[in-house]
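## retry 2 of 3
previous attempt timed out at serialization; input unchanged, resubmitting
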Amino acid sequence: MHQIEISDFSIDVIRKKIRNMHLSVYPPTGRVRIAAPLNIDDEAVRLFAISKLAWIKKNQRKFEKQERQSPRIYEERESHYFEGKRYLLKITEEEAPPKVLLRSKTQLELFMRPGTKPEQRQQILNDWYRQQLKKQIPSIIEKWEKKMDVSINYCGVKQMKTKWGACNIEEKRIWVNLELAKKPLQCLEYIILHEMIHLFERHHNERFLAYIDTFMPQWKLYKEELNRLPVSHGEWDY
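## retry succeeded, writing output
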């Protein structure tokens, strides 16, 4: 991958075995990437980008306005999200194995040993998020396997810096981003369905859109909801 300069920003260019160029603008910074066929030179890519400049600028402005969380330090009464709802963190120190509990509609309690460092607190909370996602995922997978008449061999959770989800088509394995634990359940379901549709169509083309329109007509609302909610300090693509 390399970069070309257009207007007042850089564009990441990656070449693949594809027929057409694909343009993407990623949150939260509005980073631009063009996937181009192997036989297309940089000048053709540059002209394509210039023709899409208005669309690029429009999407970059949208991400600039998106609410974003500052880096978390895991202290008392700090805001954290679960299933799209905001909770205030309560810290409880005790000589016992760490755990996380939802105490009320507004409070998330983190139990930890005295002297636990911020990065260790983050790991405790991330482990809890992972457990919650693993409880939620099986029923969603089962639902869409029946509706789509497909089978998934595995669906796992991991911290991803570049995608909300990923699908290994050949092995029928799906991964979802740990960050989805903070989003409403319909956002998690949308991402899982999105990845499952890749079993039918590898690319985000008209055929792919036809499938997702059929299975989840309201998917654009869920994607907008995913965009509107606070995103973490990291940079997520999807």
